[in-house]
Amino acid sequence: MEISAQLVKQLRDKTGAGMMDCKKALIESGGNLASAEEFLRKKGLMDAAKKASRVAADGLVAIAISDDEKVAAIVEVNSETDFVARNEKFQKLVLEIAKIALVSDSIIDFTSSTGKTIKEEIDTLISIIGENITLRRARRLSVENGIVSQYTHNAIANNMGKIGVLVAIETDGEFCQEKLSAFGKKIAMHVAAANPTYKCTKCVPQDVIDKEKEIVLAQAKELEKPINIAEKMAEGRIKKFHEECTLTEQIFVMDGRTKISEVVRTFGEENRIDVNIADFSKFVLGEGLEKN
Q1: Across residues 53-57, what is the average pLDDT?
Q2: Fewest CB within 10 A of the end CB: N or C in the chain?
Q3: Structural domain of residue 67, as residue ranges?
Q4: Could you tell me if 71 and 102 are in contact, meaning their C-beta atoms sit under 8 angstroms apart?
């Protein structure tokens, strides 16, 4: 049976459910609006739509890693309260989403082991738990030769917690997976504590550097500093910016004196391999979200 877009819109306006859910409900009910609405209620989709407007800033950050540690994924799935984050059904779904992120970019449309899409799984759980649940973000890191290490802070279950970090470590030759994995975890723990924004100085966009310099020069002008002094102030500020925000320029939190770039170089020399940090990613639960 063909369902018109106008009929789908009519049901959507009435129930607040998603367009595809409305179309499916109309198909199942033979185009009858009342029956379609009842179908959505039975599936819990109307409740999910109503709860979708509520702020979900709690939940879990979860990590999944392939057996060879060459691919890893990190996801953030939000709920409204920490109570739900400790729910076994919620944790099971979050972990499944992380595993899906290892192999697919279209997570929300991925069909899970139950035969439902992840969106349908989320909507079903919303109707059971009674809170809004959202898949906020996901990222995957991989290496050709090396490992992707992980660290989970404030863990409440295996590889699930409030902060998650991935660090991709690349090398050019044979390596001991156990040693490289342990080293990568130390770097991941540093990232969790020191919160770098960029991997290296070359990774910092020029407009960011220009803005930092502009601010310092403006401050120097207000203080009526000579231009040569102002330029030196700007250079000092850029250097400090790199030390604060660039991973390779930061001081390793575990010894308080050595730059990360030096820590990486020393590890490579000790193990007779070339090592470099290819990439990293850090998710902090609820970061940037408005909380009730």
Answers
A1: 56
A2: N
A3: 58-198+249-284
A4: yes
CA distances from 142 to 62, 246, 262 (A): 17, 21, 23
End-to-end Cα spacing for the chain: 44
| 68 Cβ neighbours under 8 A, 6+ residues apart | 177
Q: What is the pLDDT of residue 53?
A: 47
pLDDT of 72-81, one tens digit each? 999 999 998 8
For residue 197, give the 3-state DSSP assignment: coil
Asked if the structure places residue 290 within a domain, the reply is: no
Write down the pTM of the prediction. 0.77
Q: What are phi and psi of 110, to 5 degrees?
A: -70, 135
Tokens linked to 238 = 């850029």
In the structure encoding, which two tokens stand for residue 257, read together?
């004196």
pLDDT at 11: 79
Among 87, 86, 93, 89, smallest CA distance to 134 is for 93
Residue 63: which of 288, 286, 256, 283 has the closest Cα?
283
Same domain, 228 and 139: no
